[in-house]
Amino acid sequence: MTSLLVIVVVVLLGIAIWQLTKIFDLTQVGAGHASEDSGIANPRDNNIQGYFHFIFLGFIYLITIFSFWKYGSVLLGTSASEHGPDYDNLMLISMVLIFFVQTITQFLLYYFAFKYRGKGDRVAFYYADNDKLEFLWTIIPVIVLAGLILYGLYAWTNIMFIEDKDKDALYVEVYAKQFSWEVRYAGADGVLGKANIRYIDGVNTMGVDMSDPYAQDDITVNELHLPKGRQVIFKFRSQDVLHSAYMPHFRAQMNVVPGMVTEFAFTPTITTHEMRDDAGIMAKVDKINKIRSKRSADLMAEGGQALEPYIFDYFLTCNKICGQSHYNMQMKLVVDEENAFNGWLKDKTTLAAAIKESKKEAAAPIVPMGDGAPAKPADSTNTAATKPDSTAVAQATKK
Ligand SMILES: [Cu+2]
Predict the structure, then answer these.
(1) 244 alpha carbon to ligand 1 midpoint, in Å?
(2) Between the ranges 8-12, 98-102, 109-113, 302-306, where is the mean pLDDT highest?
(3) Out of 73, 148, 332, 386, which residue is the most buried by the measure of CB atoms under 10 Å away?
């Protein structure tokens, strides 16, 4: 670190000395020493600079086209939530507008810089003002921006306004901590029991207040399952630092803030299975698997094991740099048909039962199984089993 600082200081010192010599050169102007490299632009310099503007303009256009061609495929594909198309529309309109305006204004900027480059004894033309022009270039952006902002506000309120539309919304708590997620379902009563960090104890890793009657049927898991076509109201809590729950396929993101509950709601519209047949997703999966098979070949050449092919799954990921392992803070997200979802949830043990079980286990002497390993609960997605869910997605992005 110290040597880096020394290098930076030496470089800065070098630049300072170089600049000082330039100032010295400038003081010599008009003292009879003016030459080709005097630092004063001559007509030839002005011409070269004028053409450079056009080269730079071409560069901007080309890099834009190249980026669309090369990276267009990494944009978010089909949205899988009810509000998704509105969100995408707002994004598209804003981007098209920005793109259109910037293409024209950049051209004008560089064209005029070229057209009025220094030439002979041409001097700047003094032009005080033009009311009509000023009015036009004020009123057009005002109208366009006002329209965009109003439309944005309308879309934003529609997305962010949470109401239990069908009185049948699913309440889900998403709990963030360095560096994993946990999920709690409200159970049959549809109400999440109170929770506080002080109640964290053993298998009660989310600090649910077990004296609250509403908490008795709450279910904690570490894989997020959602039913298609039913509104899901999320309550976010954080145990430690600021996280951000990001579900890109659903166009959903909400900060997860320690000490408070944040909310978001959406209705999933495409199940995981349906999304796997989406053309855009299939292309992405193909691309990932091509990279994987190449990597597998290298690994096997080194005597390692081949990577498993990637299968698409939705995911919830942290979008706030929250610490060292932030990059791997992901959770698998599954969207099922309502029946399949209900079946999945029905099989889960409630937190109350898990606590009871763990107390019983703690009281009983440990009896090792045949292979010497302690007995494990059968259900691996229940948090009560304290087994981290390392999903395929988390593994796929880790490199
Ligand atoms: Cu995080």
Answers:
(1) 6
(2) 8-12
(3) 332
